[in-house]
Write a structure and sequence with these properties.
The complex is a heterodimer of chains A (about 200) and B (about 110). Helix content of chain A is about 80%, strand content about 0%. Chain A is mostly helical and about 200 residues long. Chain A has one domain. The model of chain A has no long low-confidence stretch (mean pLDDT about 90). Chain B has one domain. Chain B has a five-stranded antiparallel beta sheet, covered by helices on one side. With about 110 residues, chain B is an alpha+beta fold. Classes of the chains: A mainly alpha (about 200), B alpha+beta (about 110). Chains A and B meet through helix 3, helix 6, helix 7 and helix 11 of A and helix 1 of B.
C-alpha cells in the first residue's frame, strides 16, 4: 500500500481524477460547456494554492514527514494547476465559439488577468523538470517565482469575473495567513536566550 | 503546543475558506423581493421575450429571488443578466464581471 501511495503514477492519477469527472460530465451532457469554466478554473487555482502552501507550511511547522512527502510532489501539483488552467482555456474557447469573440473580451480586466496568469504559468510548467533545473541553475528559481504574480493575477481574475470577492479571497486566505505568519516571525526581534548571560 | 496552535489556526482558516466558497447557487449579486414563486411569471416567457429582442439565451435559472439569464446580447456580448421575476424588469447585466447595467437600488 505504501509503495502505491509513494509512486509518482498514483499522484498523477489523483491529480487527474477531477478532470476525468468534469470531462465525463461534459461528454455525457450533464455539464454544459459554460459550466465547465468554473470547475476547471477552480481546480487550477486550488492546486496552485496547494503547491504554494507547502513551502510556507514547512517553514512554519518545521520538517514533518507528511510535509516532506508533499514537498517532493509539489512540482506535480504546479504542473497539474497549469494543466487545469489550459483545460479552463479550452472550454472558454469552445464556449466563446470564435477568435473574434475571444479577442473582443480581451480588454476586460477579469479576462486579461486570466490570460496573463496563464502566460506566467507557461514558463514555470515548461521548466518543471530535472533537465531545465540543471540547465537554468540559479535562474530556475527565479522562473518558479513567477508563481507569486501568477497567484495575484489568478485571485484578481476570479474576483473580477464573478463580480464578487468572497470565494476567491476565501481560497487565498490560508496562503495569506501563512505568509503573514512567516513575515511576523521575520519581524520579531531576536531575544537572547536565558543561558546566554550578560 | 505552538505548532498545534498554528495547525489549528491554519485549519480554521482553510475551513472558513471552503465554507465561504461552497454555496455556488446564490451569488448575492442581485436580490429580488418578489414574493412567493406562485406569483412569478414563467421563466419560459422571459426567455421568449429576450429572444424576440434579439438575445441568444443559453441558460436561465433562479438566483437571489430573481431570474438569472446567461446569453448573448443582440450586439454580440456574452452576458449574465438578472430580471425581476414578476415584472421581467432588467436589473443587472454584466460581461465577465464588468457591469454593463445596474438598475438603481439593486
Amino acid at each position: 500500500m505504501r509503495t502505491i501511495i509513494n509512486s509518482v503514477r498514483f499522484v498523477w492519477v489523483i491529480l487527474a481524477l477531477p478532470a476525468l469527472f468534469q470531462l465525463h460530465g461534459w461528454w455525457t451532457g450533464a455539464i454544459d460547456t459554460m459550466d465547465m469554466l468554473h470547475p476547471t478554473g477552480e481546480t487550477s487555482a486550488r492546486l496552485m494554492i496547494a503547491a504554494m502552501l507547502i513551502g510556507p507550511l514547512a517553514g512554519v511547522l518545521g520538517p514533518r514527514r507528511w510535509l516532506l512527502w508533499l514537498l517532493a510532489r509539489r512540482r506535480a501539483l504546479g504542473v497539474a494547476a497549469f494543466g487545469y488552467a489550459v483545460l479552463h482555456l479550452v472550454f472558454y474557447a469552445i464556449d466563446m465559439g470564435s477568435l473574434d469573440a475571444i479577442l473582443g473580451e480581451l480588454p476586460i480586466a477579469s479576462i486579461w488577468t486570466g490570460w496573463l496568469a496563464l502566460a506566467l504559468m507557461l514558463p514555470m510548467a515548461l521548466t518543471s523538470n530535472q533537465r531545465s533545473m540543471l540547465w537554468l541553475r540559479t535562474a530556475w528559481k527565479r522562473v518558479q517565482q513567477l508563481a507569486y504574480p501568477a497567484a495575484v493575477l489568478t485571485l484578481l481574475h476570479w474576483w473580477w469575473v464573478h463580480d464578487g470577492a468572497t470565494a476567491a479571497v476565501a481560497h487565498f486566505a490560508p496562503l495569506a495567513f501563512l505568509w503573514l505568519l512567516l513575515a511576523l516571525r521575520r519581524l520579531r526581534p531576536i531575544r537572547p536566550s536565558p543561558q546566554a548571560g550578560v | 503546543m505552538r505548532s498545534l496552535f498554528i495547525a489549528a489556526a491554519f485549519g480554521l482558516a482553510s475551513a472558513t475558506a471552503l465554507s465561504l466558497s461552497a454555496p455556488a447557487e446564490a451569488t448575492g449579486k442581485v436580490k429580488c423581493q418578489a414574493g412567493p414563486q406562485s406569483g412569478w411569471k414563467n421563466v419560459e416567457a422571459l426567455k421568449a421575450q429576450l429572444v424576440r429582442e434579439g438575445w441568444k439565451v443559453t441558460k436561465a435559472k433562479v438566483d437571489g429571488g430573481c431570474y438569472e439569464v446567461y446569453g448573448v446580447l443582440p450586439t454580440g456580448e456574452k452576458v449574465e443578466a438578472y430580471f425581476h421575476p414578476v415584472s421581467f424588469e432588467k436589473l443587472y447585466v454584466a460581461q465577465r464581471g464588468k457591469v454593463l447595467f445596474r438598475k438603481q437600488g439593486y
